[in-house]
Design goal:
It contains 7 helices and 8 strands; from the N terminus they run H-H-H-H-H-E-H-E-H-E-E-E-E-E-E. The chain has 298 residues and is an alpha/beta fold. The protein folds into 2 domains: 111 residues, no CATH class; 173 residues, OB fold (Dihydrolipoamide Acetyltransferase, E2P). The longest helix has 33 residues.
Amino acid sequence: MFKVLILILTTNLFFMLHATGNISKYINMKYSFLSESMIVILSILTVGEGIKLWFSGEKKEGQDDCDCSPGHHDHEHPHEHGHKKKKPSAGKKIKKFLSYTLVLIPAITGVVLPVATLDSQLVDAKGFSFPTLEDGNNQYGTHQVLNPDMSKFMNQADFMDLVRKESKSYIPKDTITLTDKDYLVGLEVMYNFSGAFAGKTLTMKGFTYNGPGEQPNQLFLLRFGLIHCVADSGAFGMMIQFPKNVHIPNDQWYQVTGTMDTVYYPQMKTKIPVLKVTSYKTISKPNDPYVYRNTLSL
């Protein structure tokens, strides 16, 4: 009975994530076919386990309906000799209870509790650093900031071929607008060929983040992006610099336009792209605040 309940709740969890669109907060939607396949598989398993439970119940009723008249007891009951079912020990009962509970909790809370959207608090919690620029040999941290570095997921030669190919869509342009669709691709090109974009006009949107070591007229404009899933998500974006000092709190959504340049950022001990703002406006938080890497098959 518990197996059927767990299968029903788990199937419902995946179904509700897709029905509400919240699945996009956990995985890159180009992999959505995997979770959709999981719904089909779990549904089949649920039906199979339900049929099995039904027939086991019928069998048990058939055994209980045996003829227990005095004359009937003159005959042997083969199933009564040496086949008494042992009661499970208390330790096994506890283990079984805990195992079922550990599965039931995420199946229930995943539907009942609201899905939180990642914001600047996570950036603070994970730390605002740029290990890919400080140490090119660092292969261990998956948390990324600013630059959506795909080199962590492929060899260096293939990575450089990819970035050069993608740069052909951006470098020739004098005016660039980063959309949700190409946000991560465009940023990666700009971080790898920052000198080629000096003086170009860029428009982008994101939420504000006041990073450490900034000047009073500087802050970062970020979007949380998913390469494959939430486990390799990062806060990707760019430093923006205003003509005068500003006081903008974290997590305010803006669209900004400006001229690209580079600036030395002491916190990361390197030069990074900077957008010198010429115009900006507040915008509403998008229905889907995340961006995804959708141009690479891995």
